[in-house]
Amino acid sequence: GDEMKKLKKGIANITDSISSLGIMIVVISLVVAAAALGYFYVNSTSEVTLVTTVMNETRNLRSSSGYGTDDYVPALVKGGSISKSYTITNNQIYNKSGGLLTVKGNGVGFIVTDNGLPQRDCVKVARSIGTADLASTKINNTSFTAEVTAANAAAACVDGDNTLTFTTKS
Q1: CA-CA distances (angstroms) from residue 122 to 7, 57, 98, 125, 138?
Q2: What is the C-alpha separation between 157 and 71, in angstroms, rounded?
Q3: How far, in Å, CA of 39 to CA of 135, rounded?
Q4: Residue 90, pLDDT above cutoff 80
């Protein structure tokens, strides 16, 4: 009789260990998933921050006659306008996805182009930056002259590399 009791107790202990291990695995998976989501969310947010910063800082560089056709990136970089958390190489600004961010004068306004964005960043940045205050917002090959809605952004942003082009009025 004692052998069976020991065996049952042993099986019970093993079952307890397995279920607590199962719970641990679930907890670990949740933490990893949350971290990944957090990382993607922060990435999209930092992309919005980068474009917003570039636009605001470029407005400060306007000359009395407007922006001409100059490349404003070297002035932004050398003026210390771009956070060190972004990659800057040879006076060029790269976004978190490794795409190039360019700023060119367009007479009275300027054009900010953000290349190589994954779909989620494309949607988020287009929605956040693509307001009615701009002359136009272009998502890949689709231009919008009014506010970019979530539906517009979702339709125009592809699964892969996306290019956003923001043209300011002034």
Answers
A1: 60, 21, 14, 5, 11
A2: 26
A3: 32
A4: yes
The 10s digit of each residue's pLDDT in 112-151 is 999 999 999 999 999 999 999 999 999 999 999 999 999 9
Which neighbouring-strand residues pair with 144?
A: 137
Gap between the Cα atoms of 95 and 54, Å rounded: 11
C-alpha to C-alpha distance for 170 and 136, rounded to whole angstroms: 12
Q: What average pLDDT score do residues 94-116 get?
A: 96
Q: Is it the case that residue 41 has pLDDT exceeding 90? A: no
Structural tokens at position 107: 């007479």
For 122, other C-beta atoms within 10 Å of its C-beta total 28
Q: Is-contact 122 138, C-beta < 8 A? A: no
The answer to whether the CB of 168 falls within 8 A of the CB of 135 is: yes
